[in-house]
Design goal:
Radius of gyration: 23 Å
Largest sheet: none
Number of strands: 0
Helix content: over 70%
Structural class: mainly alpha
């Protein structure tokens, strides 16, 4: 087949019936949203931000106000053992000037603008995930886009209704990364990282994305990291009391709410917490024991990528999952952006030894079994999500290592599947000419 024929085959318009099914899926999802919201009111994280804004408007310390409420609740927990515990505003004092600015706007305006930006962030995360999809995979993965937001990390969860700012921050960072890959310009990415880390300091770990996927990025990434650390370190000097209360609010997230997340370090901390064993510094040591080898593996794979052993679309899902795993505290909204990347890793792992008709039942089995565990309880959801992240990251890494060891000229299973699909489409196009 000539290159012109292959290009033509690769860019055939979507079949009308498939397009109709996809539109139908989106319509069903949009129609179901008002019903879901009626039973599960959205914006519980946004309500925490609003409470902080009101505290600032009243001239109060938002951390101290929230801490007082938490301490009162837990001092009387015997009176309401089944009630959900209160949460406090846990973003650093550098974010408070922005809250004051938002508080100066009419509530209807700031609220509407936030939800619009939030919706754009959710859709952007889905769009970014689809950028790693190969042509032969698109016909399957396009049907996952309407529901991807409701399965963060491949496990069902309603966190998309929370209104958590993480959806906006991850969308901003990953969108800037897409720009960096396409234009070989990373300044917008580094600005996005600094902005995101001012809100959520652990997001500074995402700064390694250009190091692992582009050349000559160690210096700008190091400067960005140093700047992010400096912005955090100067806050106790500028706002000593606020910063002290901020650290106390963060600590209460763990000691009161057991909010360790689903990362390996988070699951280990929860294990120690449940047995009344001090989780610090043991959790930090445990984190370093896997984070250092994890980063070393990412660097090794990135060198293979830069040598051309595999494409960016093949590298992207593994890269994103691995980099997010460097965050020591992963919550539901942190893994929300990984839904499609994780699905791609699983799909490609199965594709390394079988064909699409067999991949679908294998993938469906993995999806159903893991979600059955995740549905059992909130703690089991985290206990399922953490190992799932690690397992699929290792599976994706193994797949890339196999690709990198493949002699040039020998097609992989994915290449063979794509060539079969191209040949099939070409035959169908040529059929009328022989009739």
């Amino acid at each position: 087949m000539s290159s012109r024929q292959q290009t033509s085959a690769d860019h055939q318009p979507q079949h009308p019936s498939r397009r109709g099914i996809l539109i139908g899926f989106w319509v069903l999802v949009l129609a179901a949203m008002p019903v879901w919201i009626a039973f599960d009111p959205p914006g519980w994280d946004l309500a925490i931000y609003h409470t902080a804004i009101r505290a600032l408007a009243a001239g109060h310390d938002p951390y101290a106000d929230a801490i007082a409420i938490q301490q009162l609740f837990h001092s009387q927990i015997a009176l309401h053992p089944t009630d959900a515990p209160p949460y406090s505003y846990v973003y650093s004092p550098i974010t408070l000037p922005l809250l004051r600015l938002i508080g100066a706007l009419p509530a209807w305006l700031s609220g509407s603008a936030y939800w619009l930006v939030y919706l754009a962030g959710v859709l952007t995360q889905v769009w970014v995930g689809m950028q790693a999809v190969e042509t032969n995979e698109r016909r399957y993965f396009i049907y996952l886009t309407p529901v991807a937001a409701f399965f963060p990390g491949l496990l069902a969860n309603g966190i998309v209704l929370s209104g958590n700012v993480a959806y906006i921050l991850y969308a901003l960072v990953f969108l800037a990364a897409i720009y960096g890959w396409r234009h070989s310009s990373w300044h917008w990415f580094y600005l996005a990282i600094l902005a995101a880390s001012c809100v959520k300091a652990p997001l500074l770990s995402l700064v390694v994305i250009p190091i692992l996927s582009a050349r000559r990025q160690w210096v700008p990434a190091s400067i960005t990291t140093a700047t992010g650390i400096a912005l955090f370190a100067m806050q106790p000097l500028i706002w000593p009391t606020l910063f002290k209360h901020y650290l106390q609010a963060v600590e209460l997230q763990f000691s009161y709410n057991r909010d360790f997340g689903c990362s390996p370090a988070g699951l280990f901390s929860g294990f120690l917490y449940d047995r009344r064993i001090p989780y610090s510094p043991a959790s930090l040591i445990f984190y370093l024991c896997y984070a250092i080898p994890l980063f070393a593996l990412l660097v090794y794979l990135s060198r293979r990528f830069l040598r051309g052993s595999f494409s960016l679309k093949q590298w992207l899902p593994v890269l994103l999952v691995g980099v997010v795993l460097l965050n020591p505290r992963l919550l539901e909204y942190d893994v929300a952006s990984l839904t499609l990347p994780l699905a791609l890793i699983a799909w490609r792992f199965f594709a390394s030894f079988t064909t699409p008709p067999k991949i679908i039942p294998l993938f469906s089995l993995l999806f159903v079994v893991t979600n059955c565990f995740g549905f059992y309880s909130w703690n089991v959801w985290k206990l399922t999500e953490g190992p799932l992240l690690v397992t699929l990251f290792l599976a994706g890494s193994w797949n890339l290592l196999q690709l990198s060891r493949r002699p040039s000229g020998i097609p992989s299973a994915n290449d063979a599947i794509q060539n079969d699909a191209i040949n099939s489409r070409t035959s169908q196009m040529a059929a009328p000419a022989h009739s």
